[in-house]
Amino acid sequence: MRELDVPCWTAGGYLLDYFTNKPWRDMDIFFPSKDIMLEAIDRMKSKGYELVDIYDPNIIKGGAVIFKWEGGLVDFMINGANPEETIRTFDFTVCCCSLDSEGELVFHKEYFNHIDKRRLEYTGGVMYSDIQQRLKRLKKYISKGYGIDQAGIIHWIDGVMEQQVQIFTNRVKYTNEFDICKRSIKC
């Protein structure tokens, strides 16, 4: 991220893979504004990185631009003005962690506890508006060995149903309130 030389942060699955010693497949890098993301895109292109795909904002909130980078894929996205806002949109606590280019780690207060216990807990956040994407994410984490109890699955279903009503009435709430922790780390 330092190579981009713009304000940015990574969050979600890349950090989960890192903290569970799994190989990373892709990294989401978030930017505080479209202008800063466009600057980073220009830098990637000028350095010869291959542009792989561009996602429509209707599929991924805010859209995404995907590059090949160091053996994996890197998704450039806008989702919140800062790392805290970004992770508040995430659906499960095991995704609610971000690391900025200065080495500040921001995470849900239960992040490491839920990773350790392989517990899947719905936060109320909404990363995807498409019901199929949300179902795929639930299946993905259950397939990775994360468990969700009956109350948790009911909470998730209620959240999905409420979001569908909000989409229909054009009142989508993308963020959720929960306690945030911050720590500086050496990168």
Walk me through the structure.
It is a single chain. The protein has one domain: 2-Layer Sandwich (Beta Polymerase, domain 2), CATH 3.30.460. It has helices at 13-19, 34-46, 83-88, 111-117, 131-143, 150-169; strands spanning 9-11, 26-30, 51-55, 64-69, 72-77, 97-100, 104-108, 180-184. The protein is built from six helices and eight strands; from the N terminus they run βαβαβββαββαααβ. It is an alpha+beta fold. A hairpin with a 2-residue loop joins strand 4 (64-69) and strand 5 (72-77). It has an eight-stranded mixed β-sheet. It is 35% helix and 21% strand.
* Order of the strands making up the biggest sheet: 3-4-5-2-1-6-7-8
Instruction: Sum up the overall morphology in one term.
Output: globular
Order of helices and strands: EHEHEEEHEEHHHE
Assign the CATH architecture. 2-Layer Sandwich
Number of domain units:
1
- The poorly predicted ranges are none
The CATH topology comes to: Beta Polymerase, domain 2
Number of strands: 8
Quote the average pLDDT.
84
Counting DSSP H or I runs of 4 or more residues, the number of helices is 6
Strand content: 15-25%
Specify the CATH class.
Alpha Beta
Helix content: 25-40%
CATH superfamily: Beta Polymerase, domain 2
Major sheet summary line: 8 strands, mixed
* Termini gap: 11 Å
Q: Determine Rg (CA atoms, Å).
A: 16 Å
| Class by SSE composition | alpha+beta
